[in-house]
Design a protein that fits this description.
alpha+beta; three-stranded antiparallel sheet; 9 helices
């Protein structure tokens, strides 16, 4: 009986020692990983990298280091690595099915790094959402909408859909439509619109602004207005031209389209 108790005490001491060592390793490893990530974030090598490459690399390093830490803790606890490998191998089919979506997202993230359809800070429309690209990680891309909503999009979805990058080109074109009564002079309306566009300093002279009649009905004439600007000025020019052209038409007493009156016979 005494031998059994002595053996049990020795086992508990050994197990307790391994547990304490494992906890210390886990704590120190966590601190070390955070320190390494801070150093990487400040390193000149990553500063020179394009934004999406930078965030993807940091995410990859973080996950890899934590996987190594978990393996080290398992080894300290005395679990034979051969047993761990055997268990993982026997469960590989189930794990593969469970991680099918994650692996697709990982592959999508790698493809995003290779082909770079967008960069950090670009305004994009993809997978049913629009916003500014804030971060690209191993599995997900974070997009911030104009009303400050944070949307996390799986990388696999991004690589299997059309991506519209509104920020990739230096210039963008603002397209607007206006209507007025058919009794108005098309040349006069066109002149008012061109004057409003030329008065805006953010509207480029080359390519030159465009304003022409583009359609008509029994009640109205429709005009198409096109103005080129720098991509970062797009929304400013869009709203400013909408207001200025509307005000110019009002100041010159341009008549609105006639309203068709529907009569009912009995």
């Amino acid at each position: 009986m005494e031998a059994f108790i002595s053996s049990l005490a020795e086992m508990a001491t050994a197990t307790g020692g391994k547990l304490i060592l494992a906890l210390i390793t886990l704590f120190l490893g966590n601190v070390l990983i955070k320190s390494i990530l801070k150093i990487l974030k400040k390193s000149k090598l990553l500063d020179k990298a394009e934004g999406t490459v930078r965030t993807f690399t940091l995410s990859f390093v973080k996950i890899s280091l934590y996987v190594l830490l978990v393996i080290s803790v398992i080894g300290i606890m005395g679990v034979p690595m051969a047993s761990v490998v055997t268990v993982l191998a026997s469960a590989s089919v189930a794990v593969g099915l469970a991680l099918q979506g994650a692996l697709s997202n990982l592959a999508g993230g790698i493809m995003l790094m290779i082909f770079k359809p967008f960069q950090l800070g670009d305004y994009v429309a993809a997978a049913g959402v629009e916003g500014v690209v804030k971060e690209v990680t191993l599995f997900y891309t974070v997009i911030l909408t104009l009303d400050n909503k944070r949307i996390t999009v799986p990388n696999g979805s991004l690589m299997n859909t059309n991506i519209t990058d509104f920020s990739s080109e230096e210039l963008r074109r603002v397209d607007l439509s206006f209507a007025c009564a058919k009794s108005e002079s098309p040349a006069r309306i066109q002149e008012l619109m061109l004057e409003a566009m030329k008065a805006n300093p953010q509207v480029l002279s080359d390519p030159e602004p465009f304003a022409r009649i583009s359609g008509s009905s029994n009640e109205a004439m429709e005009f198409t207005v096109r103005a080129w600007c720098k991509s970062e000025d797009y929304w400013s020019v869009y709203f400013d031209l909408t207001q200025k052209i509307t005000e110019a038409m009002g100041e010159h007493h341009v008549q609105a389209p006639a309203v068709r009156v529907m009569t009912e016979t009995h």
